[in-house]
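User: two proteins, same treatment. go.

Assistant:
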Amino acid sequence: MRHIINWNRKWAFTKNADAVPEVMPERWDYVNVPHSWNGIDGQDGGDDYYRGTCYYAKELVRADLPEADRYYLQFDGTNASASLYIDGKLIASHDGGYSTWRADITDCIGEKSLVVVAVDNSPSRTVYPQNADFTFYGGMYRDVSIIAVSDTHFDLDSYGGCGLAVTPAVLEDGSADIRIQTWVRAPQGTLLAEIFDAEGNCVAKCEAPAEAANDITMNVKDVHLWNGRKDPYLYSAKVSILGSENEDSEAIDCVCSRFGVRSFVIDRDKGFILNGEIYPLRGVARHQDLWEKGNAISHEDQITDMDLICEMGANTIRLAHYQHSQFFYDLCDERGIVVWAEIPYISQHMPEARENTISQMKELITQNYNHPSIVVWGLSNEITMGGISEDLMENHRILNDLVHKMDSTRPTVMAYIGNCAPEEEITFLPDVISYNYYLGWYEGKAEDNGAVLDHIHALHPDQALGLSEYGCEALDWHTDNPRKGDYTEEYQALYHEILIRQIQERPWLWATHVWNMFDFGADRRAEGGGKGQNRKGLVTIDRKYKKDSYYAYKAWLSDEPFVHIAGKRYVDRHEEVTKIRVYSNQPSVELFVNGKSVGVNDTEKQFFTFMIPNEGVSELRAVAGGCEDTAVIRRVEKQNPAYVMKDPGIILNWFDITAPEGYYSLNDTIKDIFRVPEAKDALYELLGPALPDKESGKGGGLVNLLMTLTVLRLANAEASGSFGHKMEITKEDLLALNAKLNEIAKPVE
């Protein structure tokens, strides 16, 4: 019978070895798995976190293992490439930092053997991801285990799967056919397949001769559907291999998997339909890292993440930009969260890495096929950033066909960068599409998103459209006059209020995912007054502070009554009359100032506004539907300098720029300035090396992104080295360029 032994504790670790040791090292540090060597330096900025090969070593004593015919060593996550050595001999290697892989070690271990794992997160041309806005934390950062099995066992050698695939199909009579596929090594005896409901009752059973590949279908009457957050009901499939000589004896091997029975359709005009009912998918994207831990997070950490997402009222998560842990997919099944799962084929197409996209996709689907929460397989993210080559197109055709062959029940999807033209051939390739749009942050106005989505929707008559990323950054800066680019909590909240209203007006969007649920490590970043993180999260990277934008979504999505006064960190206010924003899912809100009611607002929905005199110290209390919240503000003569962005990496701020109406300035985008030759020439005088080729307009992998940036953003990024190289740019240089641009009139529309 199968035994699984957790093997997480007490690994010797070093980043300083030159070769694989032949004996147990004496001077290495001891760590427990999950472990990452970039938990600190991967989040502190500078794009200088350690990327190289590190070693983990541990002795394996055969007498400590249960008696079995075969032993497998399983790794749930080793980023990015890993090689397994036993007693100095290379046993197996794996490329891809986010999926499970195994090695059969039966014939390699002696009475006492030294197990060494070399894990490498160095830059590579053959393993994804390599160019993306997040830290590629190195480490053996998920569980390690030993699996002991008989010679006859469910397959453990194919792409990290469990040898069992469950495919439910809902029938018109209220029953469901449950297809059970298994793959068995050295088959013998009888296969017993059983289905249990959530209460543990056996509702279907079938026996068949055990074969290398088995395909059994059973029917479950009056099936209980998995119905998202409303009712995430789960069945279990248990399949056993019974010995032929005595069917009452212990099973030779056994695998179990939970599954849900549901039907869904992604409709171009109606959006997402679950079990025949319209079920708009509104939620967030998630990166898995945590403050000072990197990706080496615990089960408790993952439960905290799920609790925060569910409290907000989200019903979908885009698990970006790689395979997440089985524990988290299980949580999604249990909580009724609808999932977009994807591989890390992102930002930069690498011709030498095609096989890696194929192997990672095979692993993603094989390992996660049984999760009812997953409804789409993501082919890539923003991959057209560097242009669209025929090799890129062929890579995507191969992946699209592969997914359809491996799983006929789920559609394919891609997330396109905002300036990938919706007329491009690649946008018609997957079954459904979604766009990453940052209008209101990197370019344009937040109010523009709706019209752009309407345009794309009209161009794709056969594909449903979603919004896979949108958001803006917020740190602990504050203002009474929020505007794009100020990194204040107030602008982030305002931005999301605007986006929420536009999404509400477009129910045909099949799914929308805020970028991002949590701030996350991006070590090359240095902006907004902080380093080493992308701060677009609704919650801080340590999960300790929910920004006001979090409560904006809670007001929209959650059914649990609540009220929240926004701007709690914006205490010192210098305006005579100040705006108080209150978020609630109740129909009306009453605000009290120093115990006295200033009125009831029942004319707005979700986002309530009160204008109050700002005098001395004001204690605020908001009451809505039996809920209440409090805050304090204080009148000051001048703006508190602690609330104004200070960034040593920024040589000039947007508010230092003169921008006369009708004329260009550093606050305009590269794309807009390129419309006028005189303005374009002025730009090349200072920023030529950072811009696309002047004559052809072609350039490196970031061309499309660069065109969406303001001149100021690009200049600050180049001065701080955010794109991997640095230019010598001074404040005086930028002010001189701005003066030139201020004299150049914009074209009349």
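Protein 2:
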Amino acid sequence: MIEFELLERDGLARLGRFTTPHGVIETPALLPVVHPDRERQPIPPEVMRQEFGAKAIITSSYILWRSPVLRPRAEVEGVHKIVGFDGPIMTDSGAFQQHAYGDVEVGADEILAFQNLIGTDIATVLDLFTEPSTEEAAASAATEETAVRARRAREARPGLLAVPVQGGLHPAVRLRSAELASELGDVLAVGGVVPLLEQYRFPELARLLIAARPGLAPQLPVHLFGAGHPVSFAFAALFGVDLFDSSSYLKFARRDALMFPWGTVDAAGIREAMCACWLCADLPLPEVMRRPAEERVVHFARHNLLTCLTEVARVRQAIRDGQLWELAEERAAAHPALAAGLLQAVRGARWFVPSEPESRPGFRATLPSATLRPAVIRFLARLGAWQAGREPNVPHRRMALVPSSLARLPAFDLDGRPIRYGVPTPVGPVPLELSELYPIGCWNGPDSYATGEPRSAPREAEETERLPLRGDELVLWTERHLGAILEWQYGAPASAEILAEHPDVVRSRRTGRVRGIVKDGAVWFTVGTDGLPYPTWQGARRLHPLLELPRRRVLVDADAVPFVTEGRSLFSRFARPLDRALGPGSSAHLVDDSDRLLAVGRLLLAPHELGRFRRGVAAVVTAHARSPPPITEEPVEFPQEDVPPT
């Protein structure tokens, strides 16, 4: 059984790894398609590994099986020696050939036994390929037959097994297929998508992936068969695709076509040295076109493969940086079909929300669809709940929550009633006290750089600004700010209790923004650049009894209690969800079965994923009883010149 370990993530997309008999595969990963006959493979697999950094490949067990020359050798020497690759090898089963050319002469059990015999690292079930146009009844029947074959394969396969997920464009069938594959497979291979990819039908691909997503077990890697063009990698990764395979690097090269992250270019029309990759730096593209056809194919295939592998590396880095949505939008901006697919994805944002990080380092919006990202959908839903029953906000200009601005802003009207201001944001008006929260507090979009006449404040705001000041507006607004963000995270009762302690704040010397909530010189909460309050051990001890079960809690199995208490990470197999509203990146109270607070942890997994991964960390402990208490000096006073103007 596979042990897939999640290392980092950005929503459904994740950096992970799993071990095969011939080495570790780190995801997301591209598995270049390699022809088992070396005479027909222009880029040797060992060159792919040593020169291009490919860690794993995929080849056809069916082509090996039907070859009277290669089959006897493969049965004796194994697929790794035949192909010439000492890393992990995945083999497909001939399902595509069966679909394209009619019934093949090998059965599902026989091809699985052959894959076992030749020592493949990941074998694939011979499934029934279903076209997007396949009618629902036929797609459902094919899915059930594939499940029957997969059950037999599971019993006969001692190693890793890829089970295809089919079902055409029928959501219910796709979901059923995903659930069956999750019961039987180690790798979940979403198939039947090549026609969609070839015809740039990205909206339908998005609907297909959204339909399958709830049925795909989160602890298993997901492979998207035939996703070999770099334009699709970031898009597919948004849906949690971990593995890609590509033969297109060679197919495109044979027709003098070059692959780039933004699309495909006919090499015959290239007159400039437009590519800066190290291959084209040595031999510019216009010069390549003067070479013999055989030499051109090799160069273009190498260029295409390098482009694909480099784009996967970009996807990996974007996941590390929390910027995969930005990368996907950047790619979508280059092609209308992909932009349409991304719009379809955000229309299904509710499927992304359970795995959506609580915050990211930033929020860069380049396409209008950015306002429909899962982070925005979740924020607006929480905002609606937070504002329910409150008085309407008074429109006001956008401003920073810093002393220089707050000290000049009336907190009460002429009748002594509190004024609730609403400030404009790209997603609509937001209460001033919440305007620093992710994603709006770090929003970076076209409006941030708009030029022209400055926008005047609404008339209502102009009238309120002429109200008399009480002299203690900064204190009043600071209390409102703290109360709002504490209520946002922990609820109104807990917020009221914390404020009743009359805590102080620490503000950044550079920006004047709140960065800590302090009581008697000890930091109870740190406030991140996402505007959210994160408890220290001292803060968590005060906060914990104020939170009703199961709010902000994750249950720790008894076996792991001593380790978590000492500050060691909580592993997935010892974690159980309590608060289903938490998400990756959330600060959670790690408790035992008597609700004793053991530690504070930052979640890597979503609640529905806790306990399902056999390897890996569920939460990194950020504070515990033996943590040195963070102490601060008295709250800092800020000179006027240290606070940037608003």
